[in-house]
Amino acid sequence: MASVKLILKKQKVDASGEAPIYLRLIKNRKTKFISLGIKIALNEWDETKQRVKKNHKGSTRLNAYLATKVADAQGEIADIERRNISVSARKLKEVVKGKPVTNFFDYSYGRCEKQKNTLSFSTYRNYITYLKKFEKFVGHRDIAFEDINVIMLKDYAGYCSTTLGNNNTTINFSLRILNLMFRNAQKEDLIPRDLFPFNKYKVKKEKPNRRYLNEEQLQALIALQVSERAQAPLAKDMFVFSVFAGGLRFSDVIELKWKHFNKKDQRISKKICKTGNAHSFKIGTTAIDIIEKYRTKDAKSEDTIFPFGEITERYWNDREYRAVHIARKTALMSQYLNTMGKAIELPFNLTFHLSRHTFATRALNKGMRIEHVSKLMDHSDIGITQIYAKIINSELDKAVDKYID
Q1: What angle do CA 74, 79, 185 make, to 5 degrees?
Q2: Closest alpha carbon to 311 in 240, 377, 258
Q3: Which fold has domain 215-403?
Q4: Which end of the chain is less crowded, N or C, counting CB atoms within 10 A of the terminal residue's CB?
């Protein structure tokens, strides 16, 4: 419980012999002072009763004012302590002074809405999803930035792990969204720079686990006979195409148009969905043969190559519809690929993104320079690509341990 007391700061006596009266707040043995804008002579203050003596001509008026200030401060403190017993002395001072307290959820959801048109829709949707996840943990929206401390972060991480069954990667991402909102609020001078509990608590990161198809598994998939019903053959071709076409992401493969493919130069040129970067690279015979399987006599330059996405005009003009459509088709693709993965007895679930990992490990294994692999995969940082190099080195070490004493 915080204490409130009136103090005459005698060490601040001015030239006329008067000293200022302050409200003193003490919380967890930390003290904060709030100036009340009143000065009186030293002999006009009763320190025991915390009152202005009657020898001051305005004592009645001043004492009524001081009593109101103390009562208001005690009321504000009682209210905020009912909501959060861990509130700091600094926070109490801000509340008593009338400084507005920034609500975390009001700010964070508002920030997302402001950025909705500048963020990719999938990023915007992820932000909202993870904020709602935190809101469900808290149980309400009445929480200020100052209320989010190390203890709460630890409890939230525990909730993610035990109640939701999240792994450390997901937990770290959940905290990263909160971290981002804190940094944005600091940049806008809504909260102080020293209010940052993430410096004191971190979840241990798991070692990156990049699954991929080795050469034997890849050839088994290529040779696999799949049902001609539905779109299973198309799903298989799109996966294999990505493996032999720079590890293109699913969204880029599904949006690939005939105008993006220059048959003469054996080159793909398009803007990458995730980064927005213009990307141009050469592809080999395997990828070209797959593309040519889907060329029709009346194919137009604006037509998509792989008829998996039912791309309509709305898809290109409505980014929310586009994100939902890709998510739905990604799920369908995963169903097809997982069935194929089981058929060739993979020890893990086969998803489209593994085509990207497979391309990277194959390219490095075949001697391609890591900076060239990084460029082909449109990585923003070569450090991302180095993860694949570490995988290959690890596999090499295992081979040495197994065959060489």
Answers
A1: 110
A2: 258
A3: hpI Integrase; Chain A (1.10.443)
A4: C
Total Cβ atoms within 10 A of residue 140:
8
Tens of pLDDT along 40-95?
999 999 999 999 999 988 889 899 988 888 888 888 777 766 765 555 666 666 65
How many helices (H) and strands (E) would you count in the chain? Answer: 15, 8
Q: Collapsing DSSP states into helix, strand and coil, what is residue 269? A: strand
How many angstroms separate the CA atoms of 359 and 361, rounded?
6
**378 with 268: CB under 8 angstroms?**
no
* Domains in the chain: boundaries: 3-97, 104-199, 215-403
Count the neighbouring beta carbons within 10 Å of the beta carbon of residue 42. 12
Class for domain 104-199, per CATH? mainly alpha
- Show the tokens assigned to 135: 């809101």
Give the containing element (helix H, strand E) for 117.
none
In 13-112, the DSSP E strands lie at: 18-27, 30-41, 45-46, 51-52
Give the tokens for residue 332.
């369908």
Give dist(CA 203, CA 364) in Å, integer. Answer: 31
